[in-house]
Amino acid sequence: MPRILNDLKVPLDEDLAERLQWMEPDHGPFRILRQSVDARQRHSPHFVYSVEIAEAGETLKVEQFKLERTEISGSQERPIIVGSGPAGLFAALRLVERGIPCLLLERGSDSATRIKGISQYWRHGQLDRRNNVCYGEGGAGLYSDGKLITRIKSPHIPYVMNRLVQFGAPEEIQWLSNPHVGSDRIRRVIPKMREFLIANGCEIRFDTEVKSLLTEGKQVVGVKTEYGEDIRSPHVVLATGHSAEDMLLHLNDLG
Question: Which residues are paired to 5 by β-bridges?
Answer without folding.
Answer: 51
